[in-house]
Amino acid sequence: MSLQSEEMNFHDVVRTLEEFTAETILTSLNFIPKGKPIPKLWIVAGGGWKNPVILNTFEEKLALKIPGCNVVTAKALGWNGDALEAQIFAYLAIRSRKGLPLSLPMTTGVPRPLTGGKWVTPFQWRLELAGGS
């Protein structure tokens, strides 16, 4: 089914994506090693949390999995969530540029420490767009 289908209108598609976003974040619980404590306080930051449907859906689903947990926005703690998100991406970009791991077996279950991304200069990007290598 395409997103242009008569069976799904724009609001259905957006709501599905909001639900998917909340569920995807909840899958992080699967990576907590057995015997380790499950966080009771979740601090969320970044632009996506400005969407009240995503935030409320996440809070409701998390409460079902972890009774008594709290979800607070970085903004509620006096932090600049947008700046924090930008800093996180900058940190990951530097690690990627240096070939350092972004993902570790103990945090995500990957088989070995892995870096991520592909460094592309503007010149390389233009070549790839033009069909060159």
Automatic annotation (TrEMBL):
Keyword Kinase in annotation: yes
The entry's keywords: Carbohydrate metabolism, Kinase, Transferase
InterPro entries reported for this sequence: Anhydro_N_Ac-Mur_kinase, ATPase_NBD
Superkingdom per UniProt: Bacteria
MF term (GO), any: kinase activity
Pfam families: AnmK
UniProt keyword annotation of Kinase present: yes
The protein's name: Anhydro-N-acetylmuramic acid kinase
Record organism: Candidatus Bealeia paramacronuclearis
